[in-house]
Amino acid sequence: MPSKGRKKKTKKAILMKDPDKFVEIYQNAADDAKRVEVFMRAVSLTGTDVSKNNDDPFGNGDQSKIMLDLPHFSSYNWFEQLNKFKYTSFTANLSSIPLLRSCKSGDSDALEKRVKKTEIGSKERTRLLEGRTNLYRCSALLLMAQAKNGMGNGNTVNIVRVLLQYGARPDARDICGNNVLHYLAKNVDSSDSILIADDCINAARCSRYFGMKVMVNGTTQNTINSQVGTLQGYVHDQKCAETGRFAVVMDNDNRILSLKPGNIFVMKSNRKVGACIYDQSRKLFNEPNRLGEICIQDSLMNFSTKRGNNFALHMMDVHNIDLSGPQFVGETAHQTIAASIATHPDETFRTKIEDYLAWKDHEATRFCVNCGEINVEYRCVRCQKVCYCSESCHIAHFSVHKKQCISGSEDEVVIQEFPFEASLVERCWFEEIFWLKVTSEKSNLIFKDRNASIRLPVDKKVFSSYRYLLKEASRGGTHVKATFRKYPKPKIIVFPKTKHKRAW
């Protein structure tokens, strides 16, 4: 008995003092059962509640922050070792699972047939799509995001879209707390990764309601308004790229409708319409793993390729990813990236990242817009951007700011990207809010300012989800708020929901 105790203590001590030994111990285990035992013991050392994982075989399990204060052991270093090791090992033996076999082969038809055999919203479908049948607790969607290991057989995007359509959760996490974007970020220069990421970001804003009863309302088809159905999943739609569509299986006739999220509502217990299911504030790209790392950090610090990472640039340019969140090792993502990017071999890429970091520094600066005092505490409650040192400064500046204030959750649409000419912006500052008149002209909307220094034709399809705006534009015109945004790429942005008729 004492010798067995010493043996266990020795193994534990090796894992704690030398995390690199983990891979060797794991690989040299006598059989799969021993391998699982070693893995689970090592995972427990990071503060992971393994029993909670075992009790949640179809969910994310323990997603707490990892412990960093264990004696003679850096959980962070070991967890990083685990995080990297799994990318080369966890796709083994997938052929034994029918659903994953279809995913790996890229056979989207076979995958769809298999999922359709289960009932929407049933435990059987949840088990099929979200089952964590491997040590790293990866669902089918997370496995597909690791396409560089041969998953998908060149058809990865379609396989992912089938999974999302039938209710796969885009916010699923593995044992390290990584979501699908953490996996996609490692596929350097992959256009597929960007397509999948945009779909998952849209889907995550409603995914908490997948498999639940919802109500349809506000559509142009009166026959389906106030009808009840079950939210099946996310549907990719190029014409509605800013939000995507969502599949709802109607209770009365089992029809599957592809609806915009603004027309789908939570059903209350009294069968009345509740809140809209679409959560604009949900930003999957800003959600960290159990180490506090956001999705683009590994890819920005990976210099295995001399080229820049298009995925990271896309997250910054299109989604304005936040870098200010604290990691669990003391530094922010901003600080970690700034320290590593300085030596990146691609000068053009390095400059773009440094410009973005500089813009984020500017955004974080808190100064009173009325008197100029720095390091002030108060922000505008609505926009959370403009700061004041006191209530008196807020009152004094209100007549100016009320014309510029836009809620952070306000819908926005990019209508133009180009190098700005001085004559075009001479009357406006970057980030200043101004009004544009919107009129209709054949297949385009025309955006122009009061002085006619801006006149931009935009395809109506870009605003297909804003019918009220299209209707007002065709009736002689209306007005919307707009702004110039300089970073990370110069662009003009309009806010469709600010529609308001003005005198000019």
Overall pLDDT confidence: 80
Count of runs of 4 or more consecutive helical residues: 19
* Order of strands across the main sheet: 4-3-2-1-5-6
How much helix is in the residues? Answer: 25-40%
- Biggest sheet, in brief? 6 strands, antiparallel
Shape: globular
How large, in whole angstroms, is the Cα Rg? 26 Å
β-strand number: 14
Class computed from helices, strands and strand pairing: alpha+beta
Q: pLDDT under 50 segments (min length 5)?
A: 1-10, 70-76, 87-93
Report, as a whole number of angstroms, the end-to-end distance. 90 Å
Tell me the fraction of residues in β-strands, as a range: 5-15%
Note the main attributes of this structure:
504 residues; alpha+beta; six-stranded antiparallel sheet; 19 helices; 14 strands; disordered N terminus
Outline:
By secondary structure, the chain is of the alpha+beta class.
Structure characterization notes:
The protein is α+β, with helices and mostly antiparallel strands and 504 residues long. The protein contains 19 helices and 14 strands. The chain has helices at residues 2-17, 21-27, 32-45, 50-54, 75-86, 98-105, 108-116, 123-130, 140-144, 156-165, 180-184, 191-204, 297-300, 310-317, 333-341, 347-364, 391-401, 422-425, 467-474; strands at 213-216, 228-235, 245-250, 256-259, 264-267, 273-276, 378-379, 387-388, 413-417, 433-441, 444-448, 455-459, 478-485, 491-495. A 6-stranded antiparallel sheet has the order 4-3-2-1-5-6. Strands 9-14-13-10-11-12 form a 6-stranded antiparallel sheet. It has a two-stranded antiparallel sheet with strand order 7-8. Strand 11 and strand 12 (455-459) form a beta hairpin. Helix 10 packs parallel to helix 12 (191-204). The termini are far apart. The model is unreliable at 1-10, 70-76 and 87-93 (pLDDT under 50).
